[in-house]
Design a protein that fits this description.
Layout (H helix, E strand, L loop, with lengths): L27 H21 L2 H7 L6 H17 L7 H14 L5 H30 L9
Helix pairs in contact: 1-3, 1-5, 3-4, 4-5
């Protein structure tokens, strides 16, 4: 006489690894946050280089335009600390809208905003592409042997 064993438990939700898609060895989104932080710091340097232009053409750093540039510098540095948050990209985009809109206050700052807005559009496209490839298992770190 055999005693029946415990009934098998149902399998949990299938994970990408159980579907045949191995997880990447390194988190590509963590690396991407590093790229975003580096881009923000580079942008801080370029925007800070607009301060002499403000001092020469806009009546000094103590004017509204000077405070705008200083505020953008502080906002860009503070955003580096927020990159792990899911809404950080929206903050970055809002900063760039302000920067492009500042074209009327200082043309050089608006030009910087346009250039870096294009850089961020490209970076966000790359992030979407990496996420898609990761879901499909096509990243080099997910390839078998």
């Amino acid at each position: 006489m055999t005693t029946p064993g415990p009934e098998p438990t149902p399998d949990p939700e299938p994970t990408p690894a159980s579907k045949g898609v191995p997880a990447p060895k390194k988190d590509p989104m963590k690396s991407f946050r590093g790229i975003m932080a580096g881009t923000l710091i580079l942008e801080v340097i370029v925007v800070a280089l607009a301060l002499p232009v403000v001092a020469k053409l806009s009546g000094g750093v103590g004017t509204g335009t000077g405070y705008l540039v200083l505020g953008l510098i502080v906002a860009l540095i503070a955003t580096c600390a927020l990159l792990k948050r899911p809404w950080a990209v929206y903050v970055i985009l809002a900063i760039h809208v302000v920067m492009v809109a500042s074209w009327f206050a200082l043309t050089a700052l608006g030009g910087i905003g346009v250039v870096f807005s294009l850089v961020w559009v490209y970076l966000l496209w790359l992030r979407r592409d990496v996420a898609k490839r990761m879901a499909e298992g096509r990243l080099p770190s997910q390839q078998q042997g």
